[in-house]
Amino acid sequence: RFVTNGDMTEMGSASERKAIKQGLHDTTIALLEEQNEEIVDKLYNKLSFMEGHMVGVGNGNHSFEFSYGSNVEQLLAQKLKCKYLGVMSITRLKFSIHSSKRITKTYVQHHGRGGGRTTGGPFNAPAELRKMIYADIYAMGHSHDLGVIPQAILEMDSNLEIFETRQLICRTGSYVGSYKDGVSSYAVDAA
User: Fold this and answer.
1) What values do phi and psi take at 172, rounded to 5?
2) For every one of its 191 residues, what pLDDT tens digit does the chain have, with 9 covering 90 and above?
């Protein structure tokens, strides 16, 4: 199964999108919308192998918003025939290990915030989700970091027996078109 965590394109932040749209003519906005629909088509062509295997498509903070009320991720979810998850979702994932064993895991997806300049810094924000809701897996994007930190926790079963289990704190990474020879970019300039 696949899930996306937003920022599928590099459209700019919410404040940048607002500033751009305030001073543009309708024809320019229509051109931007056409370009972003083409971007979604290209993205769909690259991700179409996931169709039928998607948990859903999450939203980010660099999403283009169309004048008809949808955004890039909603359009992509339609094309992939899956759920649009928004900025945060909670999903129960059911797995069949073999014919007699099935397991269920609770998966929390949040587009995310923050990053951090230290090695462990990017994992603080997804770890904070543990204060809001119990889950087996916490996955957060937004930063461009990628990794998993397992956390041991204690639980109690219906017989009042205590046992140890694990939660996974994940940074799922986000696309960043960071380096093109001779071209300035956010990721290069911010380094």
Assistant:
1) -90, -5
2) 788 877 777 776 777 777 777 778 888 888 989 999 999 999 999 999 999 998 899 888 888 888 888 999 999 999 999 999 998 999 998 888 877 788 889 999 988 877 677 777 788 888 889 999 999 999 988 777 788 999 999 999 999 999 999 999 998 876 566 556 777 665 555 55
If you write DSSP's letter for every residue of the chain in order, what string do you get? Answer: -EEEES--S----HHHHHHHHHT--HHHHHHHHHHHHHHHHHHHHHHGGGTTSEEEEE--SS--B-TTS-BHHHHHHHHHTS-EEESEEEEEEEEEEETTEEEEEEEEEE------SSSSGGGHHHHHGGGT---SEEEE-SSS-EEEEEEEEEEE-TTS-EEEEEEEEEEE-------BTTB--HHHHH-
| Of 89, 107, 147, the residue nearest 123 (C-alpha) | 147
